[in-house]
Amino acid sequence: MKTRHKRMAFILVGLAGLGVAAWLVLNALNSNLALYISPTDVLAGDAPKNQTFRLGGLVVEESLEREDDGLTVHFKVTDSANTIPVTFTGILPDLFEEGQGVVAQGKMQGGVFIASEVLAKHDENYMPTQVADMLEEGEKLNQQEQAGGSATVVPQTP
After folding, report:
1. What is the pLDDT of residues 59-91, one digit of tens each?
2. For 125, phi and psi rounded to 5 degrees?
3. Is the pTM of this model over 0.70?
4. In 3D, which of 152, 150, 49, 69 has the Cα closest to residue 109?
5. Which fold, 36-120?
6. Domain ranges in the chain?
């Protein structure tokens, strides 16, 4: 076998190995993929069957019920159009409360979403105190300028 043929065989074996490795990685990623789906999409039948996915929305006010075991909770998640009942056994995150955003990971079972994990979302309107204070001072300055005053606002340092 000539050197040129050996080199070509080596390159082909390397490309085949690279192809197999890429296929294995993509297959593993696809099997572990958890899609984010709204209650409307779930009720429309767009949720994957017998596969884990993430249900996201707001916890419906006054829907939280705890069982006597202290770990099992039932609540409802809504996207303002449709509502899905959720059951979760475990410790809820500190930020979890009614009326707040939540993402629950699990599977649908008999019209109820059985969550294996619950993630609470913080308020998207959160702003650090220093930034809020600076914006407030800037708004006061704008109001004074519009009123015809030429006052100077000196920012306070913490």
Report:
1. 999 999 999 988 899 999 988 888 999 999 999
2. -90, 5
3. no
4. 49
5. OB fold (Dihydrolipoamide Acetyltransferase, E2P) (2.40.50)
6. 1-33, 36-120
